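Run folding on both entries below.
>entry_1
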Amino acid sequence: MNVPTMIRRILLFAFFFLFVGTSAFAQNQELEMIVNADQGETTISRHIYGHFAEHLGEDIYGGFWIQDDNGNWQYNQQVIDALKEVNVPNVRWPGGCFADYYHWQDGIGPRDERPAQLNTIWGGVTEDNSFGTHEFMGLIDRLDTEPIIVGNVGSGTVEEMNDWWKYLNHAGPSPMADLRAENGREEPWGVKYFGVGNESWGCGGQMRPQYYADLYKRFAEYLRPMSGTEPYQIAAGPSGDNYEWTRTMMEEAGWMIDGLDLHHYTVVGTWEDKGSATDFTEAEWHTAMQDTRFMDELLTRHSNIMDQYDPEKETALIVGEWGMWHDPMPGTEPGFLKQQNTLRDAVVAASMLNVFNQHAERVRMANLAQTVNVLQAMLLYEDGQLVKTPTYHVFDLYQGHMDATLLSMDVDRGTYTHDGESTPAISVSASKDDQDRVHITLANKDPNQPRTISVDLRGQDVSSVSGRVLTADQMNTHNTFEQPNRLQPTSFDGAELDGTTLTIEMPSKSVVALELQ
């Protein structure tokens, strides 16, 4: 080989290594993380792991509320049992957009005497009002959880909302307490979480923020402490990156707001063509993973605005509706928003929950949309069969963070790149519970490459690690009524503890939950 040829080959190898080899090396390099187990002050509110039940499609009717062989409505015990396993902290009801169409007195009294209405917002079906206030509160009792009720501002009145508040909370004697007793409930329920309208910038009235701020103050003024119940008043917050809405609400009404309700959905296509839940490309996978980073940006920027008016962080930022929104299942009513749920949804859910945990100082409540049969559902139910979705399993894996102390971390998250677009590969959060157990949850958003993570545990001695993992060979793996357990958590043996060093071998496209003692 002559010298010029050798030089050309050396240069060619150097070019290949620089532009190709380093990229492959970067994807497989070991990532480093520091967890300070003795540095934490903020509690991760259990209410971050909340849920949402709207009169939409088969979430209430055909989900929580089903008919027996004689056509009588009853609670769906399978759904209740499954949700109790993940310790559901709250349920938001009756909407959603439906809330600003809903007149609560239509849903009380003998069921066969309740007036029907047309659900013009979701599918144009007849709402028979067999599931109303008493039925919802009965569901809350069965789930042993907290209710969040959203009142009607869009088509309702101050008097109507105030009467509902008194019906729920006044011990009596009073007209509303007497009416509640006539309908079978002597004691007040003590409902404190109350939303003053929903998406008032859109389906709740197409309002300007200045106009809604004035309406909010008017309606909220009449939600007064009652029979020992202090109201937790939730204002309709912004849609996504509408920062002007947040600024206006905080400036005009911030002192009257306990929680400001941000809504944001993960849509990989357009609102007209959102894309399939199960038949998607890696580009669409990558877009979904980028949106989890966008959620972090949203929470940071809205929080910064709130800090200007509320430096003590007395007002919570609530993520009242979030989740992946795909095209409906083929063959289903489009207005019912029924969709499947794959490993992609699970990794997005895990990443979002990690983001919420990191913002726990300001974010103190969130509600996945929705619970049964609608959007990124926890459960699918049909004709007596129940399927726990991959998203359900993520909520199961993350239970250790509920009411635990958020731990300080320093994390190299790596990079997942597709078609020249990059996003952090690893999403993570860590907490310590009241029994001094450390919980670490991670999502590897890269569908192709595993990651090795070396964790330096500081501030606490641990002697054991255990964990579970949710992963599959294919990005679109999902559970069906025919194969309900195709994707579920399994024992994780990829974590090794050596003194204060924890080494984690994260599979590609996976969610891992670890407990250290």
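>entry_2
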Amino acid sequence: MDINAPVETIKNVGEKRKELLNKVGIYTVRDLIEYIPRDYADRSKLTPLCDVEEGEEYTVRAKIGHKIEVMPKGRVTLVRGTIKDKTGEAVVVWFNQRYLKNTFDTSKEYFFTGTFERKFGRLTLTSPDFEMVREGEAINAGRIVPVYHLTKNLNQKLLRKLIYDCLESIESEIKEFLPKSIMKEYGLCGRVYALKNIHFPETNEAFFTARRRLVFEELLILQLRLLNIKKSIKKQYTGLSFSFFETERIIDRFPFKLTSGQEEALDEIIGDMAENHPMNRLIQGDVGSGKTAIAQVCAYIAYINGAQTAVMAPTDVLATQHYKSFSELFAGTGVRVVLLKGSMPAKEKREVKKLIAEGEAHIAIGTHALIQEGVSFKELGLVVTDEQHRFGVNQRKLLTAKGDYPHTLIMSATPIPRTLGLILYGDLDITTITTMPAGRKKIDTSFVDSSYRERIYNFIYKHVKQGRQAYIVCPVIEENDKTELQSVKKYFDSLKGTPLREVRVAMVHGKMKSDRKQAVMDSFAAGDIDVLVATTVIEVGINVANANIMLIENAERYGLSQLHQLRGRVGRGEYQSYCILISDKKEKEARERLKTMVKSADGFELSEKDLELRGPGEFFGAKQHGLPELKIANLYKDMDILKEVRECAEHISSLSEGEYELILKRIGEIYGFANENVTF
């Protein structure tokens, strides 16, 4: 059987089963054998019937004691019999499964797995899994058995049987692509052994050996692909080489002195821009570390070298914030800054596009509108994308395609551990700003339950009367009968019965029209609104120095990195700032996460903790990056393997041509391109 053949070519897979398998992402034979279990059930321990206790799940090895009876009970058909071993017996019951009457051979032994109860004075096993005992061929019992993600009408027994039979029949088609030298150096088992034991582990040790091999290969292929992208950009493409770097004129306009971290970042970027291949650099730093200032200096460098800059932000709010910031900084310098958003009137958009196309606009700031058809640049030399995790690789490519291999600067205020960065952003060079501007006060963070709400309102009221402003963040826009979460609309109305009824309160959320939303934001920034009730629409792009209180309702709903982003909306001025987290959740994990927020103001530390407590999630998955989804690797738990993979990937080019080709072929199978396009 061809490993790349459609799944319907497998024995016992007809049209209906094909559709079920397709629903869980299984389209080919390869997809089937690489469909990794989500969990395992240890059914290797067999319990004598005399030792089972009610309320517990067991696997027993027994015979059917007498002929199965079928007894209609109204609309329900009861199928009943007994099972027995050398130590005792129990009643076994199924419902509405008449076919079982002729399924069992009373001379054969079966594995039965289920939860025992005592009914009518007898030990009873209801609707158990069962399988005939065939020495060396157990699939559903008598061993560690896999548990898979399913869809409706697709059951575990069917999927286990299909995978088990398939692994047996195509073993010779499972090709080893890792060179022996790598397998030996990193202690990796063969691919056939790994796939068999990830599905049907012979022992616990065999499972861990199999998992290590599959995690290693998955991360290695991913890393090699990213390195390929990175090296091909530098090798194949010639971009703009900048020659002039007189940055003092723009740096002197900042109302602050650059930190050592910002200066180091600029040195690295200037070195990239002087090369004749396009820069592809990620600059990450904590909230408030000064990434935007770096982008502004870079935009000025592009300008004095006769090139345009495009700055793409994920939201209207952030794009508008950048437009105001850039416009103020470059006022009077001859640098023309324009804003392009999808929500703008058609006539205004046409005018802005014309300025960009003719080169009259030197810096174009916008949302996804920048990558739409009809937007063209005369001389695009620098692309800046902000909040990198909100964009995918493909969106970055669409913007850079507007120029002739422009330099690319990617900014992220969601810091991740460096090792993870090397994997997730393996196609990029990485700069991390670790220093913060002098004089920034630590935000006083507290975690309380809802019984403190009235006191918090009084606290906010007191600060508003002193001239300050506050944010209140709720997780949902409208009330839902099925949830107890605070909604923006209901919350906004409820404030009329609190001390905050005497101050100016407004509401903003993602369903509002862009112009209305921006008007509310502008009013808050101008000091015409005292308290802003909002969803996470304010997570990025809000810079109001006078706001010093951030109240977050249902704080357990957010990851630590997102809470840290929200907290970063305050503490931007001269006043002591406060972040108050409200949650009534009693679960240990939720409380531990919120207590971590109270203790730490370090975004990198918080992202590490988030990974530990919540797992990588989609943020670290493939969907954000245009890369295949990780099937088995966990970017937090497998950190040690990650480090080995990075080391292995960097030395892979030293392999012989034959060994090299096998890896290239595997990368090509996954990513769908010819071998000759892959180099490291």
